[in-house]
Amino acid sequence: MSQPAHEPAVVPQPxxxxxxxxxxxxxxAPHLLPQFDQDRAAATARARAETSPTxxxxxxxxxxxxxxxxxxxxxxxxxxxxxxxxxEETDVRAAMEIAAEVSAIRRAAAAEAGVGGAAR
Length: 120
What we know:
Blueprint: H1 18-28, H2 33-50, H3 54-70, H4 73-88, H5 92-113
Helix pairs in contact: 1-3, 2-3, 3-5, 4-5
């Protein structure tokens, strides 16, 4: 399975900072804002409980990847197609190919976001 070529994104990739990510998310995938806010609140609570910035870093990196994907509508479409195919697939080899393509898309998005591959 081949990955579709990226069309140029209209909105630039934000820095890996919660507010910057939220601003771009509101432009490219506003339907994800409630989940973003919920995840942010949970990460903040964990950071306070653990007295550690790590949950906030993991949160920001994961959502930076989601924004990198959402900035490319053709990538969003391809991921939806792959997810739908994965639900129906019964052949192990084909399922592995689907998983490999999803992984490649997410790795490319992580690279575009400038993170090590965190995923929500």
